[in-house]
Amino acid sequence: MTNDERLITHLRHVDLAVPDYDRQLEFYTDMWGLDAETSDEGIAFLAAAGSPEQYSVRLRKAAEKRLDLIAFGAANETDVNALAERLGRAGVTLVSEPGKLQTPGGGYGFRFFDIDGRTVEVSCDVAVRQHRRLEEGESVPVKLSHVVINSPNPEATVAFYDKHLNFALSDTLMHPRMGEMMWFLRTNRWHHSLAIARGPHVSLHHASFEMRGIDEYMRGTGRLLRGGVEKVWGPGRHMAGNNTFSYFLDPHGNTIEYTTELEELDEDSWHPHLYDFSDPTVSDQWGTANPMNEFVAKQSFNDVDRGVFVAPPV
């Protein structure tokens, strides 16, 4: 498969099911800086101020915490249909056939289970949301930057996204004792919109949100620290992707990140690196973050995802 056959264009949103819905909604709006663009009883669609996407996070009230789905965009109905047909022929389970979407902005799309059983949505023709250019000093997310997922068999998961969805490998993290641990995958010129980490079970590793710049990233980090939100790791700057990072826990223990300056690649000339993260400069070029230790790793493992091979009800 060549780049000409790449049918996924970009990351759209990440959808979370949460038991304490009201507390999560308050956190993601009042503290994290998203806008409750559309909400109904027990479900909210939260938009990032600078993004044309109708929403970057969907919260759904549920008895159990889970990752409902990860959504990606495609260029048009032809590409959506072609991807659904390709997946079906390969034996991938389709959760829904291509059709009109009932979520904000409408559009046309379908859902399927990836190899680990998480639900993935691909859509096109979603109405563009009225968004704006953020002003200097505004410490709220511009957009959803990337999503990282845990897999107990990450080599197979990476192979799935390469074979079926044509995600390209940007870089890999390894450790001399543990082997390869994280793979950064892209579907456009940005260094990664999806990364896959080796973990003890299927779960969400973290969701990352792009800030306007370094100053806004640091202001947002400071606001969360002053607000008593539990910090996991940061602030610092990774080597893979060259982006900044500040990781925090939302009220249900999902790790979420503020970032900025993710690297934009020349895909024609890029060659993936194999980075050894036993070198502390690989994890944090600045040397300002707390050490990558068992606490950081444990928070990134998250809870076992209860949504594996179970499609969300909406």
What is this structure, in a nutshell?
This protein is α/β, with parallel strands linked by helices.
Q: Could you describe the 3D structure shown?
A:
With 314 residues, the protein is an alpha/beta fold. It folds into two domains: 3-124, 2,3-Dihydroxybiphenyl 1,2-Dioxygenase, domain 1 (Roll); 143-301, 2,3-Dihydroxybiphenyl 1,2-Dioxygenase, domain 1 (Roll). The chain contains six helices and 17 strands. The protein has a nine-stranded mixed sheet with strand order 14-15-16-13-9-12-11-10-17, sandwiched between helices. The protein has an eight-stranded mixed sheet with strand order 2-3-4-1-5-8-7-6, with helices on one face. A hairpin with a 2-residue loop joins strand 2 and strand 3. It is globular, with a radius of gyration of 18 Å. The relative contact order is 0.16. The mean pLDDT is 96. This is VOC domain-containing protein. Residues 10-125, 143-261 form the VOC domain. InterPro entries: Glyas_Bleomycin-R_OHBP_Dase, Glyas_Fos-R_dOase_dom, GlyoxalaseI/FosfomycinResist, VOC_core.
